[in-house]
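The authors assume throughout that readers already know how a fold can be written as discrete tokens. In essence, backbone conformation is discretised, so a fold becomes a row of integers matching the chain in length. A single example would do more here than another paragraph of explanation. For illustration, here is how one protein appears when written out as sequence plus structure tokens:

…
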Amino acid sequence: MAIDKVKAYFKEFGIENRIQEFEVSSATVALAAQALNCEECRIAKTLSFHVNDKVVLIVAAGDAKIDNPKYKAQFACKAKMLAFEEAESLIGHAVGGVCPFAVKEGVEVYLDESLKRFETVFPACGSSNCAIELTIAELETYAKPLSWVNVCKNWDL
């Protein structure tokens, strides 16, 4: 299971015990916020895209949406999300548990600016019923992003 890969990854840093597992689903932003009893905007959702021949993950705030012109300016192509059935084989995590940790080699991770307004956020950890609370600095350390990007809208209103 992907959560076991994420636990092993976090064990290297001594924080595997910070992963929270729930009796209920946390597969969507709304469900995760409910399970964690927090605002939806603090859920760090991981969106997966095809960018030419690469797989790209963009971690964004739960209330942010991809802004197509910004995305095209950043990646020089139209936003094309991975199909549901592609996620696990291409990323290493199934939809509902996609996260930027312990992903397959070659998957590129980016963090969206929409996250920077929070002290801590809650990304998933490889399954549809788990999350971890991380500071933005910790997210940056453990997700190992190539860079920060500004490809979202509707969060800074």
In short: Helices lie at 2-11, 29-36, 68-75, 87-91, 136-143. The radius of gyration is 14 Å. Residues 61 and 74 are 18 Å apart (CA to CA). The chain has a mean pLDDT of 96.
